[in-house]
Amino acid sequence: MKQKLLALSVGLVIAQSQSVFAAPNAFQDARSFAMGGTGVASSSPASASFHNPALLAIKHEEKHDGFGLILPSVNVKYADDEEVVDQIDDIQSEIDRFNAAVNSNNQAAVQASATRLSSQFSKLDNDTARVDAGLGAALVIPNEKFAVSVFLDGSVKGTVRGDISDSDIAYLDFVASGAAGVPPELDETNLTSEATAIVGGISEVGISFATAFDMDGSALTVGISPKYVSLTTYEYTANVASFDDENFDADDYETTDNTFNMDLGVAYQFGDEGQWITGFSIRNVIPTDLKTKSGTSMDVDPQATVGVAYTRDMFTLTADLDLTENKAFGFEDDNQFISVGGEFDLFDTAQFRLGVRHNFGSSNGSEGIEEESQLTAGLGLSPFGVHIELSGLVSSTEYGAAAELGFTF
Fold first, then answer.
1. Is 16 a domain residue?
2. In a domain, 244, yes or no
3. Distance (Å, rounded) from C-alpha 114 to C-alpha 171?
4. Phi, psi at residue 27, to the nearest 5°?
5. CA-based diameter of the chain, in Å?
6. CATH code: domain of residue 379
7. Which pLDDT score is estimated for 1?
8. Domain for residue 223, yes or no?
């Protein structure tokens, strides 16, 4: 089941690149992933469209000023500190043992299995697992007068939760007491507990434009990214006893929609050597939404972020702050991050990156997975204009990784 949830999430991203839920968080390239999710003031031109299109027209170091290509950038995050999917697998295995004991008329084994199932059901109730996945690519021609980038990206978030009914636990406790004798087999007729999977995906194909204005030796840049957006939701609820992740058709639980939207950004570069950059971006300027088959809405709201970066020859320090709160998707809390990252560049050949970000968004009472503080790190290798990026993320509840292949000429 764990592999099924991951495969579903990644599959939705690839396919698209061809209460109220928010859309998945914006796509992050591998460099941003390693630097705490920062990028509004610190992105390279190749990844600017993912964070702030105005950075396309910022004057960068010579190694970043030419034609750039990202093909591809991928990332995956997985949070399951309560081992939800393993719990569901264990429950289904125990149900098989229970039914085998019923068929062999072994009351002692039935009672022992019912005791174990009652405990397993109690532990699973409201436990949650989550998978995030992203895929992106970009082609960029940076220029201070008129910069252009073509990009595509997709992000998907999936959550799964167990919803255990009190009547099931009461029935299992009754069977465990021996008062029921040898009961019938367990199936969806005498168990009502369920597991629900909710998946939402957003993919974008767009083109970014940016230009710079001289401000007495400093530079003010503005950028815009009109884009074609595809939305997908998937909501699937199944009885825990009869759930089979190989025997359902995703199309029966899927909704889709297509629309146009845009991102806006500004950046200001100043200092004796242009070492300071401040940035501001608004993603998804036009609010939109998509309802699941059950009528629940996945909202795509404007997301505003401000950032600052300080860059010298061998290092970059940067910080981002979300000005708007992203409503929770599925079974999780709302998120609003403050992020800090750094990069040390060794002779334009190897880059070492660290980052941290903290969620100060409000709790929405979902009792789902909380995102608090996350630590990130990464390594970049850039010989002869080829960029290989590897990144990782860890928190008290989540693990993640990202990889990217890029070129600069």
1. no
2. no
3. 9
4. -60, 140
5. 89
6. 2.40.160.60
7. 47
8. yes
Provide the token pair at 251.
């199309």
The whole-angstrom separation of Cα 134 and Cα 76 is: 6
Amino acid at 256: T
132-171, pLDDT tens digit by residue? 999 999 999 888 789 999 999 999 988 888 888 999 999 9
Cβ(41)–Cβ(163) under 8 Å? no
> pTM of this prediction?
0.87
d(CA 408, CA 239): 52
59: exposed, middle or buried (Cβ count in 10 Å: 0-12, 13-18, 19+): middle
CA dist 293 and 343 (Å) reads: 44
Angle at 74 between CA 132 and CA 84, to 5 degrees: 25
Per-residue pLDDT, 348: 86
Contact in structure between 142 and 122 (CB atoms under 8 Å): no
Looking up tokens 């509840």 gives: 397
Instruction: Provide the domain limits for residue 140.
Output: 21-80+130-159+197-237+252-408
255 three-class SS: strand
Residue written as tokens 């939705």? 12
| Domains in the chain, number | 1
